[in-house]
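Bumping with the actual sequence this time:
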Amino acid sequence: MTMIGNKFKLSVHFLANLSRKSRVAIVGSAGVGKTTLLNELFDLDLIANDYTKIPEVVRTVCDERGYKSPYEIPADEVNKFREDVLDRQIELENQSDRFIVDRSCMDAWLYFMRWSWNTADVDVSERFFRKAFSQTKKYDALIYLPISFELEDDGFRWANKTYQKQMDRMFREYFRAWDLDLLFLD
């Protein structure tokens, strides 16, 4: 991935490949530039005129419920919150034939898994997995953003570098396990 200053360098080759896809998710650990890339893509007429932009759903749901971050959610509401986020993600994606999203159903599953280790009810976990996996398999491509610059604390996400590396590793493992088509910035 190439950046010039704080902007991504988007090659003609990458944009040509992207334009042939219709259901695209930008994925990667916290703080790698997913929202930045989404916004830069939608600054281009080629993308803005042809795709629906789906911003990060978890922030929207937090705002609607009056939370400044997911860490404020009471423990007895966490599983419902996570499932509501996944359901909203699926609903928004199913409303459009051509979209680019900066958080995917795969993100929802991996974050659910990471934050539920040893605590999630197996039936809840299995239901969540099936929904996330089924929707993720509908993506034409995933744009994977590896960790490539210093993590910044924005007050919303957890700004722990070890956590960021764990999530990045989980993404890479699931790309292989789920046999997903990745589209790289070149």
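The tokens above came from a reply further down the thread. The helical segments are 12-19, 34-42, 45-48, 57-64, 78-94, 105-116, 122-136, 161-177.
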